[in-house]
Write a structure and sequence with these properties.
The protein is mainly alpha-helical and 266 residues long. It has helices at 2-18, 24-58, 82-92, 94-114, 154-220, 226-260; strands spanning 120-130, 136-146. Helix content is 70%, strand content 8%. The chain has a two-stranded antiparallel sheet with strand order 1-2. It is rod-shaped.
C-alpha cells in the first residue's frame, strides 16, 4: 500500500513538474521514496517465501509446496470465569495427578509404619484323627498375642520418616495445586488483556482510515503536502500492523489457556 501511494504521488509530482508546479528536487525525492518502498516490498516477499519453506519442512513436505492462508480475525470475549478454567485444568493436569498418587502412597506407607506399634495377634489350629480299634480325634485352637518391647527404636524411626514423607508429599501436592491455579488465573488475565487490545486497535484502524480520507481530500485541494499525506497513510498502515499483531497475540493466548486447561481441540 505504501508503494502504491508512493507511485501515485510520483506521477502527480511529474505532472506538476511538467507544468512548472514543482521543482525537480521534489520529483527526485518522491522517486527515492518509491525506490525505498520497492526495496521493502521485495524484502517482505523474501521473508514470506522463507517462512513458507520453513513451515513446509516442519510439516515434512516439499519446501516449495503452496500454502493457503485462511485469515482468522474472529475474536470473541473470553468465555467462563477463571475458576471454571482452573477446575478443568485440575482434571487434566498430569503433574497434579502424579502428586495426588504420591500423596496417597505416602499416607498408606505412614499407616503401615505406625502399625508396628500395635501388638501382633496370630491364630492357629489343628485337628488330629486316629483310626484303629477305636476312633479318636483331637482338635486344638490357639491365639497368640505378641508385642515387641525393644528393637533399637527402629519402628519409631521408620514411622517418623514415613510421617515426613507424607508431609512432604502433601506439601508438594499443595504447591503444584497453587502453582497451577496461579498459572490459570494469570493466563486468563492475559487473554482478557489481549481481547481489550484488539478492541483498541480496531478503533485505531477506523480512526486512521478516516484521517487518511480527510488527508486525501486536503491533498487534492492543495491544503497539505505529499509528505503529510504519506504520514497519514503510514499511520493507517502501522495501525493495521498493530491490529494484526493484537489478533495474533489473542489467538496464541487463547490456545495457551485451552492447552493449560486440557480443553484444546485440534
Amino acid at each position: 500500500e505504501q508503494l502504491t501511494l508512493s507511485r501515485t504521488l510520483l506521477e502527480k509530482a511529474k505532472a506538476k513538474y511538467e507544468f512548472g508546479g514543482t521543482t525537480k528536487r521534489l520529483v527526485l525525492r518522491q522517486q527515492v521514496l518509491v525506490n525505498a518502498d520497492s526495496s521493502s516490498v521485495a524484502s517482505r516477499k523474501l521473508d514470506v517465501t522463507s517462512a513458507v519453506h520453513t513451515l513446509n519442512v516442519a510439516l515434512g513436505r516439499s519446501p516449495a509446496e503452496d500454502i493457503t492462508i485462511v485469515p482468522d480475525t474472529l475474536v470473541t470475549e473470553p468465555q467462563h470465569e477463571p475458576g471454571w478454567w482452573f477446575e478443568q485444568a485440575k482434571k487434566h493436569n498430569a503433574g497434579i495427578a502424579i502428586a495426588d498418587i504420591r500423596r496417597s502412597i505416602a499416607v498408606s506407607q505412614e499407616g503401615i509404619a505406625k502399625a508396628a506399634f500395635w501388638p501382633v495377634l496370630s491364630a492357629g489350629g489343628s485337628h488330629t484323627q486316629y483310626f484303629g480299634d477305636t476312633e479318636q480325634s483331637r482338635s486344638q485352637i490357639g491365639l497368640n498375642l505378641g508385642w515387641t518391647i525393644f528393637n533399637g527404636f527402629k519402628p519409631l524411626t521408620t514411622a517418623q520418616n514415613a510421617t515426613l514423607d507424607r508431609e512432604s508429599a502433601e506439601l508438594s501436592f499443595e504447591q503444584k495445586h497453587k502453582k497451577l491455579e496461579a498459572l490459570v488465573y494469570q493466563q486468563w488475565e492475559r487473554l482478557n488483556n489481549a481481547y481489550e487490545q484488539t478492541l483498541f486497535e480496531r478503533e485505531a484502524v477506523t480512526l486512521a482510515s478516516q484521517s487518511l480520507e480527510i488527508s486525501k481530500e486536503q491533498y487534492s485541494m492543495g491544503a497539505i503536502s505529499d509528505i503529510e499525506l504519506r504520514e497519514a497513510q503510514l499511520s493507517l498502515t502501522q495501525s493495521r500492523v498493530r491490529l494484526e499483531s493484537a489478533l495474533f497475540q489473542y489467538k496464541v493466548t487463547q490456545v495457551q489457556l485451552e492447552q493449560l486447561a486440557g480443553e484444546l481441540r485440534l
